[in-house]
Design a protein that fits this description.
By secondary structure, the protein is an alpha+beta fold. The chain has helices at residues 3-15, 46-49, 102-116, 141-148, 161-164, 187-190, 195-198, 239-246, 259-269, 284-305, 314-333, 344-351, 357-361, 363-390, 399-409, 413-422, 429-449, and strands at residues 20-21, 59-67, 69-70, 73-74, 88-97, 124-129, 156-159, 165-167, 172-183, 206-219, 225-238, 396-397, 426-427, 463-469, 477-482. Mean pLDDT is 92; it is low at 450-483. It binds adenosine-5'-triphosphate and magnesium ion (3 copies).
Length: 483
């Protein structure tokens, strides 16, 4: 099955169970102070769970574009290094708003995976919440007993609060969950009987694909759990992971979700994509770079298409950081010294045509924005990298130097941190934050004096644009330095 068919099959399956198909919400969240980007399918239904909005359709199914690069769910560091965490990914979900509960959710997820998608049962494991004394939460015996009808008990794993109690953020709807994991190792490897112990253990071939959350509580600001007015089902299946399993690949990047992008990058850069390379082996750095680029362009494009432009604060800065990270990978490991990422936008738009039309409709605009961002960062990147390479200050990179890279060369601090780690170094974060804070104080003081919209530049002096300043406010302060 192609990725498109796999997605459609999911929607159709739940439609046949009286679910109403709804569109994905935008990836950018504009009206929730607790969240910057959509990090799960349930976000757009938050008010329904809390009982604060009227339920129009008690059963819903969709595919939601999600982004996990900030806040409670942040996978950025894994992306490109592993083969199954993305920044932007699709979450397939079926929903019950006060309608069906555990019995149907569990039975249908099993039916879909084993009878429709035909994943062999002996490759599947399921997990159930073991309870948590501190929170006063019992083991989810009900889910356990329901699963027993389908899977032998030695394939049921009891999981702790970290893995089996799902929360959207520090506050908001939450509840115990039951997950499905697939052992994608070879038949020979699977015969070692270790599969169960590899569940939730970060094994690259034993991966979580589907989470069934039984929404029962609202986490309040004081940390307490308040029962919701009704019980709901919220499920989320990682689409790219599902495709990988069904297309029998060992990496999400080997599926048709990613191959058009990877092939384009490989062809244009002249480097071969060695997806199987291990850390330290020939081709590893290039493979990571290609995975990062193929992944990040999806996040960048959808965030822009959904209305958030790169900027110097908040959500806009998150996306600029991701973009700069991708540009640096391309520059350093694939020798791409000219704007390149933007060329991936049409490839991506073509792929998502008929799925998320938002991108195709705005592809020229998105490409232009990405190009401008690339041009701007490539202006300072080379010099910044040279400075970084020449830096000789021991194992810990000085906070003031990291600040200079940030301030003058536009290196987001996590990029400097990443480059440091590649060389076995670390960054003095405290020192960096102090330098940043001092600069903010300086700009606050400066703004207090210059209250007008106009800044009169002394005509006797030449000025040079040196970059933007990150402020806590919505305004960008363009900085000039006397030369
Ligand atoms: P993991 O443990 O692998 O990080 P998770 O437990 O954080 O996943 P959930 O919050 O349960 O993920 O989300 C539901 C599903 O979404 C997961 O079962 C997985 O298939 C998928 N998923 C989660 N994070 C990512 C990601 N960064 N990239 C791709 N798919 C993801
Ligand atoms: Mg996770
Ligand atoms: Mg997990
Ligand atoms: Mg999970």
């Amino acid at each position: 099955m192609t990725a498109k068919e796999i997605r459609q099959t999911f929607l159709e399956f739940f439609k046949s169970k009286q679910h109403h198909i709804v569109p994905s919400a935008p990836i950018v969240v504009k009206n929730d102070p607790t969240l910057m980007f959509t990090n799960a399918g349930m976000n757009q239904f938050k008010d329904l769970f809390l009982g604060e909005a009227a339920v129009k359709y008690p059963r819903v199914v969709d595919t939601q574009r999600c982004l996990r690069v900030s806040g409670k769910h942040n996978d950025l560091e894994e992306v490109g290094i592993d083969t199954y965490h993305h920044t932007m990914f699709e979450m397939l979900g079926n929903w019950s708003f006060g309608d069906y509960f555990k019995k149907e959710a569990i039975a249908w997820s099993w039916e879909l995976l084993t009878e429709v998608y035909k994943i062999p049962k002996d490759q599947l494991y399921v997990s159930v919440f073991e309870g948590d004394e501190k929170e006063g939460l019992p083991k989810d015996q009900e889910a356990y007993d329901l699963w027993k009808q389908f899977v032998p008990e030695d394939r049921i794993v009891l999981g702790n609060k970290k893995d089996n109690f799902w929360e959207m953020g520090d506050t908001g709807p939450c509840g115990p969950c039951s997950e499905i994991h697939v052992d994608c190792r070879t038949a020979e490897e699977r015969a070692d009987g270790r599969g169960k112990s590899l569940v939730n253990a970060d094994h690259p071939q034993v991966i979580e694909i589907w989470n069934n959350v039984f929404m029962q509580f609202n986490r309040l600001k004081d940390g307490s759990l308040k029962p919701l007015p009704a019980k709901h089902v919220d499920t989320g299946m990682g689409f790219e992971r599902l495709v990988r399993v069904l297309q029998d690949k060992t990496s999400n990047y080997d599926t048709d979700v990613f191959t058009p992008l990877i092939n384009f990058i490989a062809e244009k850069s002249g480097f071969e994509y060695v997806g199987a390379a291990e850390p330290g082996e020939k081709g590893w750095n290039e493979a990571v770079a290609m995975r990062v680029m193929a992944d990040h362009i999806r996040a960048i494009s959808f965030v822009i298409a959904d209305g958030q432009l790169p900027s110097n604060n908040k959500a806009g800065y998150v996306i600029r950081r991701i973009l700069r990270r991708a540009v640096r990978y391309a520059y350093t490991f694939l020798n791409l010294k000219e704007p390149f990422l933007n060329q991936l936008v049409p490839v991506l738009a073509e792929q998502f045509n008929g799925v998320f039309d938002e991108l195709n409709l705005q592809k020229d605009f998105v490409q232009k924005v990405v190009l401008e961002e690339e041009v701007s960062f490539l202006r300072t990147l080379a010099t910044g990298i040279q400075r970084f390479e020449k830096y000789d200050g021991g194992k810990i990179i000085d906070g003031n130097f990291a600040f200079e890279l940030y301030d003058t060369f536009g290196f987001p601090i996590d990029l400097t941190d990443l480059m440091a780690r590649e060389k076995g170094l670390s960054v003095d974060m405290e020192g960096f934050n102090k330098a940043l804070e001092e600069q903010k104080n300086r700009s606050r003081a400066a703004t207090a004096i210059d209250t007008g919209d106009w800044v009169i530049v002394n005509e006797d002096r030449e000025t040079e644009f040196v970059g933007y300043d990150l402020t806590e406010t919505e305004t960008e302060i363009i900085k000039y330095r006397k030369v």
